[in-house]
Structures are given as C-alpha cells and as structure tokens.
Amino acid sequence: MVDVEAETVNEEAAVIESGARIYEIGYLITPTVKEDGLEKAVGAIRSEIEKLGGNFIAEGAPSLTKLAYSITAREEGKKIEIDRAHFGWLKFEVQNSAVDIIEKLLKQDANILRSIIFQTVREDTRAKMKAPTLREVRRTDTIKSMPRRAVEAADQVPVSEEDLEKALKDITTE
Amino acid sequence: MSTNILTQNDIRHVDYKDIDLLKQFINPHGRIISRTRTRLTARQQRAVEAAIKRARLMGLLPYIQK
C-alpha cells in the first residue's frame, strides 16, 4: 500500500517535472462523412497529436450514435439539423502547452461537428457495472390451466347415451 | 451506513461515456438529481455532475426532456 502511494507520488512528480499530462478528446463527426472519410478524419487528429509529441493510451473508434438532441450546423451556407453523428474518443499523454493547439485544430476541422478536451487519469475510467435492467415481473397473462384440462379430458371414459338416460331416470325416480 | 450506486459497484471514476450509469442520476426531465436523493459523497456528486455536463455537450444526454 505504501509502495503504491510512493509510486503514485513519484509518477506525479515526474509528470509535474516533464509537464506531460493525460488528456481525453471526444469528437462528433458529421453523419455525411463515409467510412473512408472517417478513417481520414481520425487519422488527421492522430497525426496532429503525434506531431505535438503525444503518446496514445486508449481509443474509441467512431460509431454512428443517435444524439439526445438535434444540433444545428451550417453546411454550404444553409442551416441544417443533425440528429445523429459518429462519436469517437482518444486518450493520450501530451505536454499541457499543446492542448490549446489541439483544441484549435479540432474546432477548425469542418468534419468535426463538436469536440471536447479535458484532463483525465491514465487508468480506464469506464464503469464495469452491468446496466441495471428492469425487475423481472411474474407474468399473469399466461394460461396454465390448458394442459390440465387436456389431461382431465383424456381420463374421462366416453359415456353412451343409453347409460346417460338410465342414470337420469334413476335420479328422477329417487 | 448509507450506500450509493457508485460505492456499491466500486466505481472510482465517472466517465461521461457511461450513459446508462449517468442516467441513474438524472430525472425524467433530464435534470441532475440532488445529493440528498443520490446519496453520493460530495466528491462523487461533483464527478457525476461534470460527467453529465460533458455528456450533454457531446449530445449523449439531453439538456432538457419533455
């Protein structure tokens, strides 16, 4: 435990000395961009970060996501409403002085609808929690008596009409 | 002892991409639920709020929901 703490302190000291920090960028690429274009767009971001001396830690490939609200964007001088976009992310280590440059580059990119950059930690921040599902409800609409009825019917011995009349007569005479 | 979703599941970092987790902390109108109801610690609540705001900016969560 003490060793782990000492290690983290050493790591932090090294980070402060070097000025390198962990950052994550999230980006939305316009849905009009095709798969080849996506690779190009992500490749451009990656190359810019590499140029600035960044080391990649993790990456989430862009995937088409339905947005929670429509975003207004300008395309060829016209306003358009975008309700889905390719969402991807990148985690990397870079000098803190390079962040402003990366931010500007992302804003200048016409394919990128929206982007975010913030400081984070090296370890995986995704929760390993299973998404809560609805409580299992006992179904009441299923018909369970069907097979039982079928069994009862099978057990019954067919009664002829004569026997039935006899039985009825016996009841009425009594 | 009071417990909350993050402590129960041993979640140390809140990620803005974990939409299903963050949905636990917003009400049907899309507003952030207060600490009295979430039962989070002050630090956890701040982390959740920051993550929700990042998710909203990126269009993963709504600002308002009718």
TrEMBL record, chain A:
InterPro entries, sorted: Ribosomal_bS6, Ribosomal_bS6_sf, Transl_elong_EF1B/ribsomal_bS6
GO MF, one term, reads: structural constituent of ribosome
Q: Name one GO biological process term.
A: translation
On the tree of life, the source organism's domain of life is Bacteria
Gene3D superfamilies reported for this sequence: 3.30.70.60
The protein's matches in SUPFAM superfamilies, at most eight in alphabetical order, are given as:
Ribosomal protein S6 (SSF54995)
Q: Which GO terms describe its cellular component?
A: ribosome
UniProt record similarity statement: Belongs to the bacterial ribosomal protein bS6 family.
Annotated protein name in UniProt: Small ribosomal subunit protein bS6
Upper taxonomic lineage: Bacteria, Candidatus Kaiseribacteriota
From TrEMBL, chain B:
Cleaved signal peptide residues: none
> Which InterPro entries does the UniProt entry name for this protein?
Ribosomal_bS18, Ribosomal_bS18_sf
Q: Gene Ontology cellular component?
A: ribonucleoprotein complex; ribosome
- Please give the Pfam families that the UniProt record associates with this protein: Ribosomal_S18
Establish whether keyword Plastid is in the entry: no
Q: Which HAMAP family match?
A: Ribosomal_bS18 (MF_00270)
Describe its assembly. Part of the 30S ribosomal subunit. Forms a tight heterodimer with protein bS6.
Give the protein's function: Binds as a heterodimer with protein bS6 to the central domain of the 16S rRNA, where it helps stabilize the platform of the 30S subunit.
Q: What is this protein called?
A: Small ribosomal subunit protein bS18
Which organism is this entry from? Answer: Candidatus Kaiserbacteria bacterium GW2011_GWB1_50_17
Q: Which gene encodes it?
A: rpsR
